[in-house]
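2024-03-11 09:14:02 INFO queue: dequeued item Hydrolase-like protein, len=314
2024-03-11 09:14:02 INFO validating residues
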Amino acid sequence: MSSSAAAAAAPAGPVLKKPIKMALVQLASGSDKAANLKHAADQVAKAAASGSKLVILPECFNSPYGTNFFPEYAEVLLPSPDPKAAPSYASLSNMAKDNQVFLVGGSIPEYNPSTKKHYNTSLIFGPDGALLATHRKVHLFDIDIPGKITFRESEVLSPGNQVTLVDLPGYGRIGVAICYDVRFPELATIAARRGAFALVYPGAFNLTTGPLHWKLLAQARAMDNQIYVAMCSPARDMGATYHAYGHSMLVDPMAQVVGEAEESEAIVEAELDSAKIEETRRNIPLNTQRRYDVYPDVNQGKIHFEDPELPKPT
Ligand SMILES: O=C(O)CCC(=O)C(=O)O
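2024-03-11 09:14:37 INFO prediction written
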């Protein structure tokens, strides 16, 4: 189901209908896109072979990360993805289908020739290889910490315009956003209020903000919303121009880290269970204690669940 369908109220019943094993593939990528895609496919197959049904790839998994690389590696997805102009789209769809998994395909640089805009875009596929949803990074990574890191995605990229909720048939709903988006609690809270069982963030923090905030953000989003939070990074490559933090991580609804990689290539796997969400919400019943008489519900007002420009799910 697409983001627009998911915009309906939270589905009835448990937020996660049955346990699901998740894999965070902390991938070592280089500058050769075809090699990156092949390597991603091998790792997704490995995760599926060990029983994972929901597999996550990192931000910019098919290219080096950096504003100068976005135009060179960008793929055209609209009006429809031509396999020649969008090899990553075709590969991701095949990875999902060949392995019968739900796949959050990290993110890839996207180019829309009709608007001449670039985006940082995540494609989410179902086990039949069909596109379930598309998320374009809503909050661009523009920061300046003097002497440490300056990064301005907005020099090249345009922001996405929707909150992305994805229904995984048979399981439940997830919220998907990308990296810097995790710093904005609104997206996470909207997803949780609309019944998501997990928030999934392909991300690529750095060696300044990674040690400071990566784990804290994952735990904060999990604690506030009492759901699972997954953050999936590329492996660190000190020979690359951008040094990713690594530490792909899954945090449970009590904000406990249930799986964490170090800096090199790894697959982090763990089972997600509705019982843990329900137990957390029973023990600390935030959902029934909110004071909408004092402040408005985050669900009030217009929330954009559908960017009309984005491809409809297949
Ligand atoms: O928020 C941060 O510190 C890092 C964000 C980032 O690396 C990204 O959005 O790609």
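2024-03-11 09:14:37 INFO annotate: Confidence is low (pLDDT under 50) at residues 1-6.
2024-03-11 09:14:38 INFO item closed
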